[in-house]
Design brief:
This protein is α/β, with parallel strands linked by helices. It contains 10 helices and 11 strands. A 7-stranded parallel sheet has the order 3-2-1-4-5-6-10, with helices on both faces. β4, α3 and β5 (106-112) form a beta-alpha-beta unit. α1 (13-22) packs across α6 (201-214) and α3 runs parallel beside α4 (136-149). The protein is globular and about 55 Å long.
Length: 311
């Protein structure tokens, strides 16, 4: 078995490459000339230099692959139009390159719960819920899913929607761990006890491999077929998450510190202004503020459990 991983040098990519290599899969990594390959080189994959926004660079990467894992994407950018371009056009370009093959490989597209929007108050999200993204990031990921659907009759495609992903190499999540380590305080975005889902990058990689081998494929005739939420079984509150982080670092007590929405908007506005002046995107920007205050972000992995036995 041969597989291509786009976005291989990011946070999630090395986890997926490691799992594939352990399964005996020969892995090709699509990377850019400027990519940091230090986490990938010990795994000894084949490197192809290119970019998902450059269709001409994809043919050589995909030519010998049985499965393509499209992990590349942006969660933030300055300006936001760059994120839209990568998250929508990147999917379309990869799907087109797969469709151009005489025998198209299976394609697993990593999407996000942000494409669905927040969960109803009474239950976690399920795949048949109509999407209602509240952020530019969520809209860009939903547009990526729509781009994949354009090729569903020619390419066997599945979509995996991830909630909060954590694990080794997560530099955005590291800031949260650092704050708790130094202050023993866990900043909450609101006074309400919203619930959300999360998954470790290793478990997400396992889910993607299982979906590639045994998952259903998307279909224009069935809007939610071939789409899977991948998450851990628990849906903690954000306060619970802070206490879990503190426990993992050996702290007996972490104090949740709720904030007023006005405070979160002010922090988001300051970060947004700094990002635009400096050209350096910040994780807590206006877009993420919209998501933080939108409600619960819990999803159910029941379909993934039932269809392919994921735990």
């Amino acid at each position: 078995m041969q597989a291509l991983v786009t976005g291989a040098s990011g946070f999630i990519g090395p986890h997926l490459v490691k799992r594939l290599a352990a399964q005996g899969t020969r892995v090709t990594c699509l990377v850019r000339e400027t990519s940091d390959l230090s986490r990938l080189e010990p795994l000894e994959p084949r490197f192809v230099y290119g970019d998902v926004t450059d269709p001409a660079s994809l043919e050589a990467a995909i030519s010998q692959c049985d499965v393509v894992y499209h992990v590349a994407g942006l969660t933030k950018s300055v300006p936001a139009s760059v994120m839209w371009h990568v998250n929508e056009m990147g999917v379309r370009n990869v799907a087109q390159a797969c469709a151009d093959r005489e025998s198209p490989p299976a394609l697993v597209v990593l999407s996000s719960i942000a494409a669905s929007g927040p969960a109803p108050r009474e239950r976690p999200l399920i795949e048949s819920d109509p999407p209602n993204p509240v952020s530019k990031y969520g809209i860009s990921k939903l547009k990526g899913e729509a781009a994949a659907l354009e090729f569903a009759r020619d390419v066997p495609i599945s979509i995996v929607r991830a909630p909060i992903v954590f694990g080794e190499g997560d530099m955005d999540g590291l800031a949260l761990f650092t704050c708790i380590a130094t202050t023993r305080l866990h900043m909450l975005p609101t006074l309400r006890s919203y619930r959300f889902s999360l998954i470790h990058a290793d478990d997400l990689s396992n889910a993607m491999c299982l979906v590639a081998n045994k998952g259903a494929r998307i279909s224009p005739d069935h809007p939610d077929k071939g789409i899977y939420f991948a998450s851990a079984e628990q849906n903690p509150t954000y306060g619970d998450y802070g206490r879990m982080i503190g426990h993992a670092m050996g702290f007996n007590h972490v104090v949740p510190f709720p904030n007023l929405p006005t405070t979160i908007w002010l922090v988001g506005a300051c970060n947004e202004l700094y990002a635009r002046l400096s050209g350096r995107a910040q994780i807590l920007n206006w877009d993420k503020t919209r998501e933080a205050l939108a409600g619960s972000w819990a999803c159910s992995a029941a379909r993934l459990n039932d269809d392919i036995g994921f735990r």
